[in-house]
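Ticket #4471: structure output looks truncated?

Reporter: J.K.
Steps to reproduce: submitted the chain below (253 residues) through the standard prediction queue, then opened the result file.
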Amino acid sequence: MKLSLKGKTAVVTGAAKGIGRSIAERLAESGAAVGIIDFDKAAGLKTQEELKEKGYACVFVSADVSDYGSMVHAKEELVNTFGRIDILIINAGVSRKHTIAEIDAAEWDRILAINLSGSFYTVKAFYDCFAEKTQEDEGRIIFITSGSGITGTGGGAHYAASKSGQHGLMRTVSKELGKNGVSVNAIAPRVIVTELFDTLYPTEESKEKLVSQIPIGRFGYPEDIANLACFLASPESAYIHGQIILMDGGRTY
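Returned output as attached by the reporter:
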């Protein structure tokens, strides 16, 4: 069965590149009009142009998730453009693979500002769009978190802490908005092949060691995350709520 999001409007943060871009394209392919939010203006405009060339309805808005005022402005611009928001994908995030000894206060604050405060500011800015939903006019909020929030490994203490914080935030939002017909969930990837992958695992030896720990024998790709995000955004996922779905090829459990 092909999932259809025709008539729906989605917003994806951090959607200029990587996982966010793949999600935006998958939602658009399924019929949704998509608002792309990213701090990288050049990459965001490039993504907008390429998706429009494929015939998809999309609009890019430059915004900084760590700045609440910036997110309020982005929300107003997208609501003015589309009239409504049905699906919110909270994807923007950064990582630094440092030990506690290597993390200084400024780096800690920056990671938390983008990953955790940025998630809250995104929810807060778009909250009224979903508070207005009903069981007959459903909404979807999906956090893209990380397996690091479960395992404490992968991206440093600041990254793991921010991702665990996202899980707590997601659960609170799910409790508040469930009665409004809004399903709220988190997708928690582990190793996904993006631009950051080669930085974290620069040698063939490091890659081979890592893939040997994954039962299905391969790394994940942005498209894997996008496919699940599209399902969770669809009407077919209506009874999945308040869940953290680990996507790691079986590596963790």
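Triage note (M.O.): checked the attachment and the full token line is present. Strands lie at 9-13, 33-38, 58-62, 87-90, 139-144, 182-189, 244-247.
Status: closed, working as intended.
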